Amino acid sequence: MRAYVIFNVVLISMSAIGAAVVLATVRPPARRLPQWLLLTPLVFGSTLLVIRGVPGMVENLLMVTGVRRGGFVGAVDISTGEFWTGIGVNTYFFAGAVLLVGTTVSYGRRSAGPSR
């Protein structure tokens, strides 16, 4: 039980920090912060979400097309609830990856200054 609580605390903390960093990219007071202070967690978060989101979307395609109803490592015969739960979770991570990568690229371009 202790490991479960620690795991959840870490995930909730990462989400809260991520939300604060993303908001800081568009708030005027954050312009005084060094670029690396915001770009480092943005790149780290983008990487994590891409690593989880892209294979998840591939798994969704496998499940929806019927190639592998249980996904990569799931059972062959899963319930309808498990099927849709898997689709929802994988879509959530993929959407997060797309949005955070877009935010990271946008912030990187805006904070780089004028191009020469």
Overview in brief:
With 116 residues, the protein is mostly helical. The chain contains three helices and no strands.
List the helices and strands and how they pair.
Blueprint: H1 2-24, H2 35-65, H3 80-111
Helix pairs in contact: 1-2, 2-3
Characterise the protein shown here.
With 116 residues, the chain is an all-alpha fold. It is 74% helix and 0% strand. The protein has helices spanning 2-24, 35-65, 80-111. Helix 2 packs antiparallel against helix 3 (80-111). The mean pLDDT is 88.
Can you tag this structure with a few keywords?
116 residues; mainly alpha; 3 helices; 0% strand; elongated
* Euclidean distance between termini CA atoms: 56 Å
What characterizes the major β-sheet?
Answer: none
Which word captures the global form?
elongated
Query: Helix/strand/pairing class, anyone?
Result: mainly alpha
Count the DSSP helices. 3
Radius of gyration: 18 Å
Number of strands: 0
* Helix share, percent: over 70%
Mean pLDDT: 88
- Classify the beta-strand content into a percent band: under 5%
Low-confidence stretches: none
Order of helices and strands: HHH
